[in-house]
Structure formats: C-alpha cells, structure tokens
Fold this sequence. Notes:
Blueprint: H1 2-28, E1 34-41, E2 47-62, E3 66-73, E4 79-85, E5 88-94, E6 107-114, E7 118-131, E8 137-143, E9 146-150, E10 155-161, E11 164-168, E12 172-181, E13 184-187, E14 190-199, E15 202-218, E16 221-239, E17 242-246, E18 252-260, E19 263-265, E20 272-273, E21 281-287, E22 292-300, E23 303-307
Parallel strand pairs: 2-5, 2-6, 2-7, 7-8, 7-9, 8-10, 9-11, 10-12, 11-13, 12-14, 13-15, 14-15, 15-16, 16-17, 16-22, 17-23, 18-22, 19-23
Antiparallel strand pairs: 1-3, 3-6, 4-5, 18-21, 20-21
Amino acid sequence: MRRGVQMKTIGKAIARLTLATAAIALLTQPAAAREVNESMNASKDGRVSISNTSGSIEVQGWSRNEVAVTGSVGDEVEELEFERSGDNVRIKVKVPDRNRRYRDVSADLVVRVPRLSSLDVATISADIEVRGVKGEQDLQAISGDIDVEAFEGDIDVETVSGDIEVQGDSKTAQSDLQSVSGDIAAERIAGDVDAETVSGDIGIADSNFERADLETVNGSITFRSGLDRGGRLDIETVNGSVNVDFMGKVSARFDIETFNGRIRNCFGPKPERTSKYAPGWELSFTHGEGDGRVTIATLNGGLNLCMQ
Length: 308
C-alpha cells in the first residue's frame, strides 16, 4: 500500500513539474512576429530614411520608382511608420517606452528603393547591409556590423561596436569610415578616404586615392592600393604593424618613423636609427618627382613599404 501511495505522489509531482515547465516555456518563448509587406511610389532620386532599434536592415536598389518594405517585426513593436513627404520617404520601427523591458521589439526588414536614392539608416542594435544604391549614404549603428556597396555617391559609415565592410566600383567619391571597436575593410574605392578605428584593423585594397587618411589606436593597417599624382597618404597607429604596398608607380616625398619597430623598405634608401639610445627608426626620401606626400608613423609595431 505504501509503495502504491508513493508512486501516486511521485506521479502527481511529475505532472505538476511538467505543467510548470510548459507554463514557463510559454511565458519565455518569443512572441510571434508580424509579417510586413508594404510599398509606395517614390522619387527616382529622393531620400529614404530608415530607423530600427534591433534586428537587421537590408537595403536593395532596384529599377522601380517605388519603395517596398518586407520582412517581420516583433509582436511588441508598436507600429511600422511608413510615410512620404515630397521626395523623402521615412521608415521607422516604433517601439514602446524604453524605460520598460520588452522581449520582442526587434525587426528584420528588407527595403527596396530606387537605385539613385540617397540613404539615411540608423540602428541601435542591428546590422545594416546595402546593395545596389548609387546615391549618398549615411549609415550609423551603435552595435552592429555594416556592409555596404559604394558607387559614385559619398558614404559616411559609422558604428560604435561592429565591423565595416565596403565594396566599391572604383568611382571617385568621399568615404568616411569610423568604428570605435571593430575592423574596417574597403575594396575598389577611389577619391578620398578617412578610416579610423580605436580598436581594430584597417585594410584598404585594390583602390586608388587622391587622399587617404588611416588611423587606429590598437590594430594593424594594410594599404594595398594606388596613389594619384600629387596625392597624399597619412597613416598612424599606436599599437600595430603597418604594411604599405603601392599598386603601380608612386611619386611622393616620404616621411616615415617608428618608435619601437623596424622599417623594411623594398625601394629607395634604407632606414636609419632615430638615436643610438632609442629603438626607433626613421626614413625620409623622395621617389619620382616627389609631387605627392606620404607620412607614416607607428609607436609600437614594424613597417613594411613596397611597390608593385
């Protein structure tokens, strides 16, 4: 009898535990997302502004004079504002009072815009990806990666915590790239570039510049690109190596200095010690007609300088 009573008691306990576990799962599982599928007419070269708190934003350029939004928003998102005023289209994921905690206020959106549109995209905790948009682009994320195609329009890309990747088409433009904690990589861009990160590497490849300004505090810098006649290249890092490999001929005055690191130069003269009492090296010379300017400085790290 006692064994039977014990088995019944254990059975009831298991049943209660199962019910409790199921209830907790129902309470903690994400709320169902709401599907989005909206569109409106737009100017062929207007401005599209997009704001999202968390999730992801993917922007695609297309041939229609229309802005279309698809994807999903969290069940606790108040609304997706989608409106036009003249040549400007605004898309905003509106969330409840930020002083309260909500489980599902993220949104994953795909936004299709006319190819010649200009973009303003801002996120708090969301990645941004842009493809096929030829106008100017202003992209900002607090916590998220940014991956963008760049054409002839100027781009301003900034993230506090995240990586930046840029793929260009070798058209001349202004590129401003900034990350506090993250790597920066750019290919096939041209014109002017400012790339700066506090903690991260910078890599610039297959590009050509009138002016390039590259700076990192903790990270390496790699420049494998060309410099226009009369162009300027400025590179600075506190803790990290520098590798410069010019694509094609370069004509410039060079001023290079390291505090704690060797300089290896595969063209021009050899570097000299800054002092017999210090570990630093310096190198100053003119290559070609010297109509451009190259300055490179690193505090802790070696430097390689070459020309293809």
